Amino acid sequence: MTPIGLDPVRYFDSDPAIRRIASELYAGVKELPILSPHGHTDPAWFAENEPFPDPAKLLIIPDHYIFRMLYSQGVSLEKLGINSLDGKFGEPDPEKVWGLFAENYYLFAGTPVANWFDHVLHEIFDIPEALNAKSGNSIYTAIDQALKTPEFLPRNILDRFKIEVIATTDDATHSLAHHQVIRDSDWKGRVIPTFRPDAVTNLAHSDWAQNIHVLGELVGYELTSFPKYISALEQRRAYFKSMGATATDHGVTSPYTNRLSRESANDMYQSALSGKLNPGDDHSFSAHMLMEMARMSTEDGLVMQIHPGVFRNHNSQVFHQYGTDKGADIPIQTEYTHNLYALLNEFGNDTRFNLIIFTLDETNYSRELAPLAGHYPALKLGPAWWFNDSIEGMTRFRQMTTETASIYNTVGFNDDTRALLSIPARHDLSRRVDSNYLAGLVATHRIEIATAREMSQALAYDLAKSAYNL
To answer: Which residues span the domain enclosing 148?
Structure first.
C-alpha cells in the first residue's frame, strides 16, 4: 500500500506569493458552517437516522459521477449494484462493487471525483493509503467498521461537519412525511424541502396525467381546469413553505419564457388531460408555467431556481433498462437573453422576486448571464454546476463573471449531490478554489487583502445564506 497525504496547500497556485495569500484566505473560511441549499440527499436518512449499510451504498451507488465514468469504460451497471426496471437485481455483494471501483479508481485521475473522493477517504475516514486494487479490501473494511459507529449516523454527519442547513429536492406531489418526522424529533438539525414541480408542469412527462391525479388527491379536488391546477400548485407551495422550504427548483430543457392567455393555457391543459397533446404545446406550456411560477414567487417569497440546458437520459437503452439519473444527462447549447426576456421584463425589477439561474453552457457566462445578472435586481447566478463543478470549471466561472456581475450577484456554492459525504469535500474544494482566485486578484493589486477576506467569507457562507433566505 502506498501512503498518501493530502497536501495542505493543494489546488493553490504554484506561484509562492499567490499560494501564501490563498492559504491565508482559506484558513479564514475552512471552518465556517456549510450551507447546502440545493441538493438531492434522501430525507429518509435523517428521519430514520439508521447506519448506512455498507461503503458501496453510501459512496458509490448514489453517485452518478462515479458510475458514468465506469460505464464509459465498459463496466455494466449491474456490476455496480444498480437494479434494472425489469426486476433484475444488480450485484448484491457490496464488497465486489467496491472492489470493481477500487480496481478502476485510476480512471478518475485529474477529475473532480478524485479530488472529492480523496478528501472523503483521507480527511473523513483517516485512511492513509491510496485507493487501488491492492488496497481496496482493507479500505472497504476500515470504512465498513466506521459506518457502524455513532459518529457516522446521518444526523451526526451533519452535526460533525457543521452542515447548518441542507435542502432536499422534492416533487410537488411528495407528502414530505420524512420531513415531518425530522421536525417532530428533538434533533436540532435543519433539513428543508425544495419544491420541484417538473413532473406536473412538463406536459410531455410520461407520468404527467397520473401525477396530476395525485396532485388533485393531495389538495382534495379534481384538477379539471387550468385555474384549479394553478390553485393546487399554489396550495402545495404553501405547504412546502410551512415545512421550511425557501426555494423552488425547475429543471427545463430551455429557459424560454412567454405568457399565454388563460384561454390558450387552459386549452393546452385540457388537451394534455385528454391525451391529445399537440406538437409544441409542451414547450409553450413550460414557458408559461415559468411565468406563473415567477408570479407565485413574488407572492410567497420562495426563491426560484432554473437550471436548463440538459438533454436528460440521452442513452435510451440505459433509460429504458435502469431509469433516470444514470449518468446519461448531457449538456446542450442554451440561450438566455431572448429566452428570459418575458420573465425578466415582467418580474426582473420586482424586489420581492429572487431568481437564480444555473447553466451547463460555459459560453454564456460572460456573453449573456453576467451582463443580465449585472443589471436585473432579481437575478443572481448559480455556481459552476454539474460538469463545471471542478477546479478549472469554478475558476473559469469566476474569471468570466466577476468583472461584469461581481461576486455579489452570484450565490456562493451549491454542492448539488446525492452523495452525503461528498458535501464537506465539495465545499472544501470550492473554498480552496475561491481563495486561490481571490489571491490572484490581491497579488496583481486588483483588490486589497482586507477586501479579499470579506469576499472569501461571502463566497463560502454569506451569499448562499442571503440568496436562499436561510
So the answer is: 51-152
